[in-house]
Amino acid sequence: MLGFLKEPVVVTAKINVSLVALTVMGLMSRLWGLCYPRAVVFDEVYYGQFVSLYMKRIFFVDDSGPPFGHMLLALGGYLGGFDGNFLWNRIGAEYSMNVPVWSLRLLPALAGALCVPLAYQILVELHFSHCAALGAALLILLENSLITQSRFMLLESILIFFILLAVLSYLKFYNLQKDSAFSGSWWFWLLLTGVACSCAVGVKYMGLFTYMLLLTTAGLHFWHMIGDQNLSNVSLLCHFLARGLALIIIPMGLYLSFFYVHLALLYRSGPHDQIMTSAFQASLEGGLARITQGQPLEVAYGSQITLRNVLGKPMQCWLHSHTNTYPIRYENGRGSSHQQQVTCYPFKDVNNWWIVKDPGMQQLVVSNPPRPVRHGHIVQLVHGITTRYLNTHDVAAPLSPHSQEVSCYIDYNISMPAQNLWRVEIVNRESDTDVWKTILSEVRFVHVNTSAVLKASGGASLPEWGYRQLEVVGEKLSKGYHQSMVWNVEEHRYGKSQEQKEREVELHSPTQMDISKNLSFMAKFTELQWKILTLKNEDTEHKYSSSALDWITMDTNIAYWLHPTSGAQIHLLGNVATWASANAAALVYLCLSLWYLLRRRRKIYDIPEDAWQLWISAGGICGGGWAVNYLPFFLMEKTLFLYHYLPAVTFQILLIPVVLQHLSDHLCRSVLLKSMFSALVVAWFSWVYFVYCTFSPVTYGQPALALAELRALRWKDTWNILIRKQ
Asked: What sections of the protein cross the membrane (predicted)?
C-alpha cells in the first residue's frame, strides 16, 4: 500500500519566462513611486469623495456609472485603514497622514500592470507569433497615457483590465471549442468571460461596448456551429444554453450583486439621497427615516400629510401654499383668479401640511377606527395652516397658459364657485381596492369637475410675487403617468385636533405611531439604476475637455498635477510614436482588407485561407474593439476627455503587431526584404522607446524639468504644458 513512497514525488511545471518578465516589468512601471505625489491628482478629487462616503457608510448616487469600480477603490482605502476623513475639495491639496495614498492607488496600478501580460496572451491566443505577442505587450508597457492613468485613484485602468481579461477568456474558450468542449477548462474560460464582462460594465458603462462585441462574436461563432453537420441538435442546444448561462444570466446576476453590496454598505442617509423617492429615503438610517419613523401606514380621512412630487426635478419639492394670492394681473396682461397661491416648495415647511377631508363630513380629525382612503375615492385637500381647500378651475396658470391655475379657494362672493373635489388614483396599485399608503403609494389627483391632473409644471419658477417657488398646475391633457403628475405622502400623522389653534400646534409636532416601511432590494435597485441612467449633471465646458476627433491625432492633453513650487508636473499624454503607428496600422488594415475582398471577389487569393481567417479574426477583435469603444462617443452629448479614448486606443495598439507580422509574412517575399523590414521594425521600436523616455518626467512627475526642457516637450501647439512665469 505504501509503495508510492519508494519514489520521490516530482512536480513539473512550464513557466513562460517572457510572460513572467513582462508581468514584473509591468508591476515596476506602474508601482514605482506610487505615493508620489502625495497630493490630490485630477479626478482623485472626484472619486475620493465616494471612497470617503463608503468608509462612513453614507449613501450616494454617481451618474457616471455603476458602483463596482467605486467599491474597488474603497476596498483599497479599507485595506489601508482609511477612516474617510479628508476634504476632497481641491486638486493639488496635500494628503493628510490618515490617508493611505499607496493603498488607495494600489488596485488601479495592479490592474494597469496586468494589462501588459494580458496583451501578450491575447496575441498568442489569436495565433500570432511569440515575437508579435511580445511586441504588443511592450507597446502597452511603454504607453505613457496608460501608465499615467493607472498610477492614480482612477477607474480607466481597472476598466481596461477587465475588458482585456474578457477578450482573453473568450479567445481561450473558443480555442478549446474544437477538442475540449464542455471540459473543465472550457467551462472555466467561458464563465470567466461572462464574469469579466460583468465586472467591466460594473466599473463603467463603457464596458458595454466590449461586452456587445464579444456577444456578437459569440453569436457569429454559434451561427457557424449550426452549420456543422457533425453536431447533433442536443449538442447544439447544450452549447446554446451554456453560452446563455455564462454570457447573459451570470453577468446579469453579478451586476445585480454589485448593487446589493453597494446598498448594503451604504445604509446611512446623506446629501445625495434627496433625489431619491421618499420610500427610498425612509429606508436609510437617519435623514428622512428619522422624521418618518413611527408614521401611520394607511392614509385615512382626517390624516395630516405632506405631498412630495415624485419627479424630483429640477429639485425635490412638496405641495405648498401660503396666505399670499396670485396678482390680479400678470406682467403679460393676463388676469388671474386672485386666489391663494399653491406652489411646489423645495424645503420642509409647516405650510407643506395638508389635511385629507371627506367631502361629506365637516370633521378634520381621524375617526376611531380610522377610515382609510382607497383608490378612486373622492377627497378634499385642506391646507393645514390657512384651512383653505385645494382648488382648480378654468383659469390659465401663471406660467403655463395652456394649463389650469391651481389655488386654495377664497370665497370673494362672486360668480366663481369652489371646485375642490379630487379623485385619488393610485398609480402603482395592485388592485382597484388598494389603500392609499404613506410613502409607498404613488398617487395622482384628478380634478372631478375638469378632469385636470395636479402637476408640478417641470421646474418653472414663479416671479418675485411667488417667491421663486415652483409652479403647480392642473394639466388638462392627462394621458399617461408622467412623474410630474405623481405624488407620494412623505410625512403623515393622524389628526386629533378639531380646533384650528390646537391643530397648528399639532402640525408642528413629531409623529408617534410605529410602523416600518422597508423597500425590497429589487425596488431599491430599480430606482437607483433609473436615477443613474437619467440623472444628468449640467455639462459645462472644462479647460481640458476635448472632442472625439482630437483624440486620434492627440491634439489634446490633460494637466493632472503641478508641483506648488518646482516645475514638476504630471500630464495625460500618449506615446506619440505609438499613437501615430496605431493610426497607420488601422489604415493599412482597412486598405488591405478591402483589397483582399475585391481580389477574392474576382477569385484571386493572394494569401492562404488560414492566413485570411487569421487576418479577419484578429481584425474583428482588435479593429472591432477600437471601433466599438471609439465611435459611440460621436453620438454622446457629454463632456469628453482624452482618457475616454484609452480603451479604444488599447485595442488599436494591439493591431500594430498584427499588421506588422502580416506584412512580414505575406508581403516581404524575399530574405532581403524580410531583413530590411526587421531592421525598420527595430528602428521604429527604438523611436517608441525614445518617446517614452522623453515624456517620462511628465508621466511620473519626476524629475522636475527646467523651463527649457518643458518648452521642448510642447511638440504640438495645442498641448498645454504648464510653464511658470519667472
From this structure: 12-32, 68-88, 100-120, 126-142, 154-174, 186-215, 236-261, 576-598, 610-628, 640-660, 672-692
Q: What angle do CA 717, 720, 724 make, to 5 degrees?
A: 115
CA distance 327 to 321: 15
Using a CB cutoff of 8 Å and minimum separation of 24, what contacts does 171-175 make? Answer: 171/122, 171/125, 171/126, 171/621, 172/125, 174/221, 175/125
pTM passes above 0.70: yes
User: In b/e form, how buried is each residue of 67-101, taking b as 16+ CB within 10 angstroms?
Assistant: bbbbbbbbbbbbebebebebebeebeeebeeebbb
Residues 6+ apart with CB under 8 A from 29: 113, 116, 141, 147
Question: What residues does each domain of the chain span?
Answer: 294-511, 543-725
Q: What is the dihedral of CA 481, 483, 487, 489, to 10 degrees?
A: 120
Task: Find out whether 175 and 621 touch, Cβ atoms under 8 Å.
Answer: no
Amino acid of residue 492: H
Question: Is residue 197 a contact partner of residue 207, using CB atoms and an 8 Å limit?
Answer: yes
* Matching residue, cell 472644462: 542
Mean pLDDT across the chain, nearest whole number? 89
Residue range 489-534, pLDDT digits in tens: 988 888 777 676 666 666 655 444 344 456 789 989 999 999 888 8
**Averaged pLDDT, 275-299:** 79
Asked if residue 280 lies in contact with residue 90, where contact means CB atoms within 8 angstroms, the answer is: no
DSSP state of 514: -
Domain 294-511 in CATH 3.30.2380.10: no
CA atoms within a 13 Å half-sphere pointing along the CA-CB vector of 533: 6
CB-based contact 477:487 (threshold 8 Å): no
